[in-house]
Amino acid sequence: MTSYRVPAEVDAAEPAADRPLTLWLDGEPVTGTAGQTIAGVLLGAGRRQWRTTAADGAPRGVFCGIGVCFDCLVEVNGLRDVRACLRRAQDGDVVTRQGEPGVTA
């Protein structure tokens, strides 16, 4: 299955115009659209991994996508253990990967 966005001009639901936003992942800008979750913004930008496990440094990103599994945990604006799949992105959010020190995904 391939996912895609329907351009606003041909969407029968007549959505409002997109409002772009930028969040910062480990100091790098990542752009998205208002209303997306942090996970949605990161996935849309091609980021698939943003956390590592404490046990062996294995990479993690979205697994369940509904807030049950905790695989997508990130730090947002200084608050740890935020589920990226549940938190709506806000323009200017500062997102930091979580995991073992020195291990990046």
Please outline what is shown here:
It is built from one helix and seven strands, in the order ββαβββββ. The chain is mainly β and 105 residues long.
State which percent range the strand residues make up: 25-35%
Distance between the termini: 26 Å
Instruction: Identify the strand order in the major beta sheet.
Output: 2-1-7-5-6
Give Rg in angstroms.
15 Å
Give the overall shape, derived from the CA principal axes: globular
Helical region count? Answer: 1
Mean pLDDT: 86
Beta strand count: 7
Largest sheet entry:
5 strands, mixed
pLDDT < 50 stretches: none
- The H-and-E topology, N to C, reads as EEHEEEEE
Give the oligomeric state of the chains in this entry, treating copies of one chain as homo and distinct chains as hetero. Answer: single chain
Approximate helicity band: under 10%
Structural account:
This protein has about 100 residues and is mainly β. It is built from 1 helix and 7 strands; from the N terminus they run E-E-H-E-E-E-E-E. It has one helix at about 40-45, and strands at about 20-25, 30-35, 50, 60, 75, 80-85, 95. The strands form 2 sheets. It has a 5-stranded mixed β-sheet with strand order 2-1-7-5-6, covered by helices on one side. Strands 3-4 form a two-stranded antiparallel ribbon. The radius of gyration is 15 Å and the shape is globular. The model has no long low-confidence stretch (mean pLDDT about 85).
